[in-house]
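Quick board copy: two proteins, each given as sequence then tokens.
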Amino acid sequence: MIEQRYRWKNKHLRTHVSVLDGETSPTILLKNATYLNQTFRKWMKANIWIYQDRIVYVGDNLPSHIKNCEIIDCTGQILVPGYIEPHAHPFQLYNPHTLAEYASQFGTTTIISDNMPLVLNFKKREAFSLLRDLRNIPTTMFWWCRFDSQTEILHEEETFSHSNIKSWLEHDAVLQGGELTGWPKLLDGDDMMLHWIQEAKRMRKQIEGHFPGASEKTLAKMMLLGADSDHEAINGEEVYNRLMQGYMVSLRHSSIRPDLPKLLDDMKRLGIDAYDRMMLNTDGATSPFYEQGITDMLIRIAIEKGIPVIDAYNMATVNISRYYNIDHLHGNIATGRVANINFLESKENPTPVSVLAKGKWVKRDGAKVEGVYPSMDWSEYGLKPLELNWHLTMDDLQFSMPFGIKMENSVITKPYSLSIDISGDELEMTHDESFFTLIDRQGKWRINTLLKGFASKLHALASSFSNTGDIILIGKNKQDMLTAFNRMKELGGGIVLVENGEIVCELPLPLGGIMSGLPIEELMIAEKTLFAELKKRGYDFNDPIYSLLFFSSTHLPYIRVTQQGMYDVMNKTVLFPTIMR
């Protein structure tokens, strides 16, 4: 319906004007507010009138009609706009709803999210129904439109067809194309991707890059082809190169790349002291990383590193909204904007004591306001517990490949030559090599190899959480791997650890096998338990969840295990194809 294209209908706009005329009462009046005015780059005082979900006036005047109006004296408090997370992956075991609810308690009230799992795991109609229903929660949810699968999937031309991409780009909730993990294809002459970029630009939508380690020349080429921003800088020199080529630079601090302190130190060393072309992001961190906050944590780091306080807040608010062309609605406290406001104890402490999101209190005087995020029935969007109507057998766990993959860190894998006997049903606990199987969730194909560096004493792990939703099995003992798989199957999806036939740890993921329905506070506990058990068994890297997610991800070097087989990323070739079952 055409009316859904507008934030407010005509009758709503007339009512907003009637508040100024004294014919309608505001719903909330914030008196004597010291707030961040980003036009003047100053802390100023004003009275702020709110009607339902919109700020209808900011200035010296007070309304004449205040019947049924909640009046709050803001003396002694500091008001800043609700924070914006510009680069979320809201499917890292948590789901978009639980992330939004949790983030609101730390003042992040607008989230711009990856649509990859929606494309890979939802039908388009169901995905768009989810986007529609998420408009009803206090958090404002925007989305990206991916142009590639970030791996080598079967029938990619159908999943990322022109009609599908066009439908996503045209959606009102989609603000950008990208992130461009498939940019090498673009440089190699992929004109369809270039056409999609052109279409996004025609619609006044941005293009986010994904250019780790890119040279100055590559950055310039990608800018010419349409890229607008990038979040992959890992030192000050890379920040400088991106700024020089005209990029909006998104400074990352995440569970897998906690880079922000170093980036800010490097920027100071290089004399970079202009921040209007910068924003802050957490790049889809796993839930334990968010224990101490989300965007507020990044603002705090920036302030502690000597960034001017107003610039620190701007990098999490108005810089982002201006970049995405939504500053007429978000990112600042001014007439006409959505009523997303954080109430602080001091300018130096960005964690709010109270939070308004779309004019609703989601946090009040340090306490969460219950019941403002309506529960969701995920089955309405096709997300039910996994129903695997096939059986795994010992015949599926036959290993004969001449080389395996070696983990360099949480996510980078290289090839290595095998030097151990892999003909038996169990591997020794004296080394860090394990059996590794990726198997189609429909049971149609599999690929088996050896994985070095993940753990040294892990009997078995089964996971339905992966980049493509296919099943990952890792372990030293084939019988325990079967047991772990069968338990994961009983749970309807999840991550299961088994040792000597006994379940050591399990984390159910009943939402399609990829997400939990637990509140993030509870999910943190479950994830910490899983991390601790893996650490006991020799996992020494930062983030096992990202390890599971990225085994198939071809935007990272060097060898990946994909739906098409063992894939050489640098040479863009399948080394060993998957085996049909």
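And the next:
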Amino acid sequence: MRVLGVNALFHDPAAALVIDGRTVGAAEEERFSRRKHGKRPVPFSAWEMPEQAAAWCLAQAGLRPQDLDAVAYSYDPALARPADALGLDDPWDHLRQTYAREAAGFLRAALPGLDPEIVRFVPHHMAHAASGALAAPDATDCSVLVLDGRGEATSHLAARRTGNRLEALYGQRLPHSLGLVYEELTEHLGFLRSSDEYKVMALASYGRPRMAAELRRHIFPTGDGGFHATGVPWGELAPPLRPGETWSAVHADLAASAQLVLEDTLLDLARWLHGRTGDRVLTMAGGVALNCVANARIAREGPFDRVWVQPAAGDAGTALGGALLLTAEGGVPPEPMTGADLGRGWSDAELEAWLKTAAVPFERPPDVAEEVAAALAGDAVVAWFQGRSEYGPRALGHRSLLAHPGRSGNLERLNDVKGREQFRPVAPMVLAHRAADIFDGQLPSPHMLFVHRVAPAWRDRIPAVVHVDGTARVQTVDPADEPLVARMLDRFERLTGLPVVINTSLNTAGRPMVDDPRDALECFGSAPVDLLAIGPFVVRRGAFFAGGMPDAGRVDATRPETGSAL
């Protein structure tokens, strides 16, 4: 059974292909178009399809559009209601619904040869739920919690997976929406709505939640599996900021208060859901599930033994969820995700051809992991481009910027490299078997979706990855899953005594994560990065800007296996 999943309506357009239950590929349109989030979440863009992502998924499997058995579109316009009937101020939402109803036609235009009769509408939050419950490992019986800005008429879904079946237990109707409330705050603080919510979470660590009592008048659980979340008078709590304006203590306090109230509400929802199901495992999806601080509290204080969050928890993940749901409904058991590396990748020969075409000097060291570890130990900033790209917003050792965590100045240095705010933290990647010695929280944490307390004895040893509140957003690395990254971490520890390396996404502010070799070379050329490790090859900054190519036939005597672009 061959099912293509498509997310297109709001933001983060994406495509995913599932064949006989196995996820063959999944990618976000932004990685191809180089437009952050693919498009803005306005009704006028709702017709746009993830054409390049979908075409790549099919090419990855050697399929044509007419070879598909079904296409899942992760929104069902039959469930929608007029925006004013839902209490939303969105006068052009009717245009969005019109585009949704015509999705099959838009898909046929994007994928010539596709039979529009095989396009099926999948309820938005059921697609989110499937992306969590049907993709999670060891979770054939589990609870699932979905929270985002909005779907057709709701903003939340509590559900349960039993075998390969999903049962909805509760949905919170709009206008009440924890996601929309957090979006409002994001805009009030001068950040980009439906894009920069993670900045509010980072800013919250600098404040005190002294406004929580006032916010609880407007945001609170209702005790029946739902919540009230609307009508917050943000302007009465702190003056609004224009984009680029400097925040003050009152803004940090407002962010801290909203973050605390969000966490408390989510904990209540998790406890209610556990009371209904008694499951050991909770899976989560929806944009709110990217709030790693809240996830950590649910894992630490909630009633479930284990919490698993979909790495592509935002709307991009509904492409995969829709495909998995139709697969399960077709009688084919869906296989769990084995990792987030579901996007594009290139062979060594293809990468070498890219480098030669770009006419840049490059080398092929005996072991790129050893070479990078040595560079990091010498305090270089390294662009790391390896294997298939990640699905979702987190760089997980495939499209990453790496640096030494023991140099406190490297936080400011990396934020300068990326052109982003200095209050933003960077994350540590750590060998899985060493993580518990350094970090306290849910482990393993391979997808960087929880925060962990850093052990006091380690805070001065790895200061660059310790946030102002003493936490870090950890990625654990298992050698069985990521042998190259693990080998680099092992060599770095041998050189420095630290089993941790800084890992942040390979991009600059306002641009999507690097995806193909051209993106990597453009980023390397435009940002002060010392070394590019691309497949088995390395490009050094000095040689990159020295001009010209290495002399034909010249060999670095210290590197007998060095290759050169001819």
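Board note added afterward: Confidence is low (pLDDT under 50) at residues 548-566.
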